[in-house]
């Protein structure tokens, strides 16, 4: 019987590497990240981020684009009259650099409340190309950074459940670190509805309470941005539906994970539609952490049983809604960091949250990432890290690889990796250590 293993690799140069678990055939390119993350048209946005350097900082927001082709990429923000065209470098990365005024529906500061939920006409970042591309949105400010892998229009859906994190302050406090979610419309005459979840006390800037719904009439490239205003307000569990395909991007202005534990950091992630959810997820440890991550689990259907490594740990009675009814939160596991399998008897979604520095004094701050269900794993993956030759990146980059080991618990010979234009190499020829078994 084959077992799944988690292998954490380190490299300062894992830029646009490709991974394949079959014999390489150039005619397969570019499968990139399968049908869900590679495409020719994208609509993006960013929720308001905290500026650690203060309101006078001028750090840009960046869009990274990868492709196996040389193809023309157009980025426009229709409502702001912005348009720029670049060509990709095959198996390389290009970047679009945007100001906050172009990239954000609106800006916010630490002590101001979010704007009431409304339609921001034409505020979405629209990216299009002739050939398939992979797109990342990245905020890398002084003292804070976060990003997300964009989903193309072809991978969007009509139903989502929001994964965010609560405002650690709010109410009458001096700091307003709001929970956020955004809705993006690729098509004209789209009706989008959000039913507010979170906690029983959650309230939006527009005055909507948990359990209440609000409807928006949207056209192509419109964005709706929704923020919490209540003390410890959280939009997690809010259900978003559309009459046509929509995108949903969620996060937090500057989250403390767990709540009350420094240091805070900006969160942002593009949600997966419920039609892509599965029943089994692999939750992997984060390099350098001494404790396990937090996870939030959501159910597509009512009355869903949740398991950790095959043992029942909880029950979610509703699809979306408030904490304890429409979603659950756990540490991935107790004790030292270990890989775990989270599963459900019906389709679920799992979002992983990295804690703040003071949780275990590891040099790492909060981020969130939506996990991919096992039945959507790909045979070939192309990815990049937020930094390019001549650009500003990170000193260290890590990749967690979940793979099916041989019957002897070793790395299979057909698990291959290459970096840029280099030749394909067997991963076990670089390092035969198989990692840790689930």
Give the rounded overall mean pLDDT.
88
Category by helix and strand content: mainly beta
**How many helix segments?**
3
Overall 3D shape: globular
Distance N to C terminus: 13 Å
Question: Count of DSSP E strands?
Answer: 29
Helix content: under 10%
Strand content: 35-45%
Biggest beta sheet attributes: 8 strands, antiparallel
Uncertain segments: 11-35
Using only C-alpha atoms, the radius of gyration works out to 21 Å
Question: Outline of this structure?
Answer:
The protein is mostly beta strands and 438 residues long.
Explain the layout of strands and helices.
Elements: E1 4-11, E2 17-20, H1 34-37, E3 39-44, E4 61-67, E5 72-77, E6 82-87, E7 92-98, H2 100-103, E8 119-120, E9 125-141, E10 144-149, E11 157-161, E12 179-185, E13 190-195, E14 213-218, E15 222-227, E16 239-255, E17 265-270, E18 278-283, E19 294-299, E20 304-308, E21 311-316, E22 327-331, E23 340-354, E24 367-370, E25 380-382, E26 397-404, E27 416-419, E28 425-426, H3 427-430, E29 436-437
Antiparallel strand pairs: 1-26, 1-29, 2-25, 2-27, 3-9, 4-7, 4-9, 5-6, 5-9, 8-15, 9-10, 11-16, 12-15, 12-16, 13-14, 13-16, 16-17, 18-23, 19-22, 19-23, 20-21, 20-23, 23-24, 27-28
